[in-house]
Specification:
Layout (H helix, E strand, L loop, with lengths): L3 E7 L3 E7 L5 E8 L11 E2 L1 H19 L6 E8 L4 E5 L9 E2 L7 H11 L5 H4 L8 H11 L1 H9 L2 E5 H9 L9 E3 H4 L14 H7 L8 E3 L8 E2 L11 E7 H8 L8 E5 L3 E8 L10 E6 L7 E8 L3 H9 L10 H5 L9 E3 L17 E3 L7 H27 L6 E4 L6 H11 L3 E4 L4 H14 L5 H4 L5 E5 L5 H16 L7
Parallel strand pairs: 1-5, 5-12, 9-10, 13-19, 19-20
Antiparallel strand pairs: 1-2, 2-3, 4-7, 6-8, 11-12, 13-14, 14-16, 15-16, 17-18, 20-21
Helix pairs in contact: 4-5, 9-14, 10-12, 12-13
């Protein structure tokens, strides 16, 4: 009997494969970064072929580190950077150009045209989303409008579109030799093309964007006992293993944190920062700049919905300090540098490098650093960068409290940045609620593993998983109310300075 579950975690900056045991403990992990391609200001691309090759390598690497074979896995789950878009030839697997990353702002004109003809909320009632460069639909249109060969192939039925889980699942299950072309409901809900109620592609929106339905993947449950396909013995696992679980990375973290009841929320600090609250079996429309999205769905059950606040730049701001400014040699060094000063010295950084996402949705915004004086030094800049992550999260929490009608009692956190104790304490201080880090912080991959394991019968049900969640550390708020609000007022003033930068 197979004793383990494997999860592909295809992220914005790297791809990982993690092997978990029944208690949710990691027994093997491998990771590889891929190139970040910036052909123009505001444009971000990935090489999808490089990502698939890295996926193959990390699967082999993690199995080797765990000392197991692919046949020891009961199933494979996949989680992914969500809105990143690739279109490829379904006979050869060759993409029509690089994948367009979720952070990319190149579809600004397409989105502005859509907004001019119907407002930023013209599709929100159906999709839960504002019109924004963030989502996949406008990216598909841009690729089809830009690459004539892609458009011809798409309308002939010779091309496939997918976000990165579709791309990985297609290759895992055979690629050109009959690979499954599917997307789960959580990723489909990020395209701006899926109806939230019917969980089907919306023909009216497809017609407006001139996207042929035949290139779109089949929409499937996140946790699917009807397996989509199997890996092959000639593939990276060297065994026939079912692929049956998929979740967008933030929904995967919600499941990995076991936020399974309405009102429970988590925040993931990765390249971006994403706060999701489970809202139960009904979609909750947002009136305060949030996204209404799918949380997950099990086969033969109704969907579970969530409210989400999406922040484009969080950990990526620390990478910018490292790679562009050279203030630190390693991302982990930002905490030590930030601790070299007592506070930010009234310096604020708003990292609107490709506009602002929730709750502002301003594609005309660009990044600013304000409050500089001769007193300011690199320690203040490092501290301001960390505080920017916390302040952006407070923006989301304020909106979520208003939309849900429920004040957040505590915040579960995960992602690479939660090892930064200074950031976590400031997050608790600026929110005035406890911040809780679990013992297993790889909750994104864990959520994908849970999805596959539940689908394959490796775990008997959600209740069985609750015993796996154990708190590692809790930060209690310790800041005076007056200081908290003064700092936040300064942040809001800094955000206003980013507006209307791009004409």
């Amino acid at each position: 009997m197979a004793d383990y579950i494997g999860a592909v975690d295809q992220g914005t900056t790297s791809t990982r494969f993690i092997v978990f045991d029944r208690s949710g403990r990691i027994i093997g992990l491998d990771q590889r970064e891929h190139r970040q391609i910036f052909p123009r200001p505001g444009w971000v691309e990935h090489d999808a072929g490089e990502i698939w090759n890295n996926t193959r390598l990390v699967i082999a690497g993690a199995l080797n580190r765990a000392g197991i074979r692919g046949s020891d896995l009961a199933a494979i789950g996949v989680t992914n950077q969500r809105e990143t878009t690739v279109i490829w030839d379904k006979y050869t697997g060759k993409p029509y150009g690089n994948a367009i990353v979720w952070q990319c702002a190149r579809t600004d004109k397409i989105c502005n045209d859509l907004i001019r003809d119907g407002g930023i909320d013209r599709f929100r009632e159906r999709t839960g989303l504002p019109v924004a460069t963030y989502f996949s639909g406008p990216k598909i249109k841009w690729i089809l409008d830009t690459y004539p060969n892609a458009k011809k192939a798409a309308f002939r039925g010779d091309a496939f579109f997918g976000t990165m889980e579709s791309w990985v699942i297609w290759w895992l299950t055979g690629g050109p030799a009959g690979g499954a072309h599917v997307t789960d409901v959580t990723n489909a809900s990020r395209t701006m093309l899926m109806d939230l109620e019917t969980l089907q592609w919306d023909a009216h929106i497809l017609e407006i964007l001139d996207i042929p339905a035949r290139i779109l993947p089949g929409i499937v449950p996140s946790i699917d006992s009807d397996f989509w396909g199997f890996t092959s013995e000639s593939g990276p696992l060297g065994a026939r293993v079912p692929v049956c679980g998929a979740l967008g990375d933030q929904q995967a973290a919600l499941v990995g944190q076991l936020c399974l009841e309405p009102g429970q929320a988590k925040n993931t600090y990765g390249t971006g920062c994403f706060l999701l609250m489970n809202t139960g079996d009904q979609p909750v429309p947002s009136k305060h700049g949030l996204i209404t999205t799918l949380a997950y769905q099990m086969r033969d059950r109704g969907p579970v919905y969530a409210l989400e606040g999406s922040i484009a730049i969080a950990g990526a701001l620390v990478q910018w300090l490292r790679d562009n400014l050279g203030l630190i040699s390693d991302a982990s060094g930002v905490e030590e540098l930030a601790r070299s000063v007592d506070d930010s010295g009234a310096v604020y950084i708003v990292p609107a490098f490709s506009g602002l996402f929730a709750p502002y949705w301003r594609s005309d915004a660009r990044g600013v650093m304000v409050g500089l004086t001769r007193y300011s030094n690199k320690g203040h800049i490092a501290r301001a960068a960390l505080e920017a992550c916390a302040y952006q999260t407070r923006d989301i929490v304020e909106a979520m409290n208003r939309d849900s009608g429920v004040r957040l009692a505590h915040l579960k956190v995960d992602g690479g940045m939660v090892r930064n104790n200074l950031l976590m304490q400031f997050q608790a201080d600026t929110l005035a609620v406890p911040v809780i880090r679990p013992r297993v912080t790889e909750t994104t991959a864990l959520g994908a593993a849970y999805a596959a394991g539940l689908a394959a019968g490796f775990w008997g049900g959600m209740e069985e998983l609750r015993n796996n969640w154990i708190a590692d550390m809790t930060w209690e708020p310790a800041m005076a109310e007056e200081d908290r609000e003064k700092g936040y007022r300064g942040w809001k003033k800094a955000v206003e300075r980013t507006f209307n930068w791009v004409e």
